[in-house]
Design brief:
The complex is a heterodimer of chains A (125) and B (376). Chain A contains four helices and nine strands, in the order E-E-E-H-E-E-E-E-E-H-H-E-H. Chain A is of the alpha+beta class. In chain A, a hairpin with a 3-residue loop joins strand 6 and strand 7. The radius of gyration of chain B is 21 Å and the shape is globular. Chain B has 376 residues and is α+β, with helices and mostly antiparallel strands. Chain B has nine helices and 20 strands. The chains are: A alpha+beta (125), B alpha+beta (376).
Chain lengths: 125, 376
Amino acid sequence: MANRKYSQDHEWVEVEGETGMIGISDYAQEQLGDVVFVELPDVGKMLDRGDEAAVVESVKAAAEVYAPVGGEVIEVNDALNGDPSLVNTDAFGDGWFAKLRLTDPADLDELMDEAAYKTYCEGLD
Amino acid sequence: MASVPETEIRRTPLYDVHVSLGARMVPFAGYAMPVQYPAGIIAEHNATRSAAGLFDVSHMGQAILRGDDPAASFERLVPGDITGLTTGRMRYTLLLNDAGGIRDDLMVTRIEEGGVPALFLVVNAGCKDADFAHIAALLADEAELQILNDSALLALQGPMAEAVLATLAPECRDLVFMQGAEMTLDGAAAYVTRSGYTGEDGFEISVANEAVAGLAQTLLAHDGVEPVGLGARDSLRLEAGLCLYGHDIDETTSPIEAGLAWAVGKRRRESADFPGAETILQQLNEGPTRKRVGIRPDGRAPVREGAVIRDAEDAEIGIVTSGGFGPTLGGPVAMGYVNAACAASGTALKIELRGRSVPATVADLPFVPANYKRAR
C-alpha cells in the first residue's frame, strides 16, 4: 500500500483525501500476541499526534496505541468489539481501529514509508 | 578478561528445543523462558484443556531433604501435615515467616531411597535460592538439603496426558492426583507425580538434564501434545483459581486470608507449632479481615494486577492481584483481596480501569472446574 505510513510505535495510517484510517502494524500484533479486547476512542474526540487513541489488551498485557496523526475521530471499527482477533488476523485490513479527519497533513511527513518501516523493524529484532 | 555479569540470564536444558520450536523467549526469574510458541497463548491454553500441553518448568527449584526424620524436621517450617505422608504421597504446603506470612508455596512428596524416607521438594523459581538457604540454615543440625541442579522438570497436562505418558510407562495410570512414583521414560530414570498447575489432570516429570530434551521431543511427537509457554500457564492457573507466588500470595498475606486454610493440617492446628501459628490460628478462629476471591468483570476488558476494587458505594475495599483473559471462559477473569464483608460469592464490585469503573462480581473459585484424577 503505497500511501500507508508508519510511526515508530508501530501504528499505521492510510490517507484518502482528508481522512486517515489508523491501526497497528503486523509487527505490533505479532509482538502483542492474541488480542482479546480493544478500547476504541469515542467518535468526535479530538486527538493530537501522539495522543493515546486506543488500548489493545492481549491475554498477557495492555498496550497503548497512539495517534500517528492528529485529527477528529469520525468513525471507529465496531467489528473489533465482537471480534478483537481481527487485529491479529488482518492488522492492515479488517483490524483497523478508527478513521480521523486530519488536522494537519504535515503530520504525515513525520512518518515512515513502507520501505523505511521495514528497515526500522528489522533493526529491532 | 571480561567478567561474567552477575545477572547473566540462565537457560534450562530445553532452551534449544524452545528456540527450534519458534518460541518467543523472555526473561523470567533469571531464566530465558518461552512465553509462547507460534500457535499463541489462546491456542496453547485450549490445547491443554482439550488434549495435552507440555511445559518446561525446569526453572523451578528441586531438592531432596534427608535426615533422621526429615518430615518432622520440615514441619518446623510449614503448617502442613508432612509426617502423615506415606511414601509416594504429595502435599501442597507453605513456607511461612514468623508473622504467618507466606515465604513461598511448594510441593512436598515423601519418597524412599533404599528404604530410607526423604522429602522431594519443588519450589518456585523466583524463590528457590532464598528457600533453599532458609531450609538449610534452619534445619542445619538435623537434616541435609541436596539441591537437584542436575534435574529438569517437565509438566504434561491435559485430558490426554495419561494416555500419552502411558505409551512410555503404563504404570502412570496407577497414580492418582497428588501421588508420585519412580518410572523409566524413554530409557531415562524419572520421578513422576500426578500433579500440575493448570486444573487439568496431568503429570510433572523430574528427569536428568541430559535426558530431558529427548523426552520432550518424544512427548511432543504425539498427536495432540502441544508445547505451552508461560503465557498460557498463567491463564490456565488463573482459571483454575491457583495462586501465583509474588502476586496472589507473598510475605504479607497469610494462608487464611489467601483461602488456603486447608493447607493448615488438623493436627498442626492443635499442636500450633509452625511459624506464625498464633496469628494464623487467631485468623482461623475469628476470620481474617480480608480474603482472596475470584472476580468476574462485566464486559470484555481485562482488569490487571494492581487495579483498585471498590464496593457499590465506591469505598475502596481491595486490590486485584491477578487478572487477565480466560480463554476457556471467553472473558476476563481476576483474583484479588477484598474486605471480608465483601467476599461472599455474588457481591457486586467496581474495579478501576483507565479512569473509569468496571462492574464486576465476586465469583467462586475455581472458575473452571478441576479435572483431576482422584482416588476412588
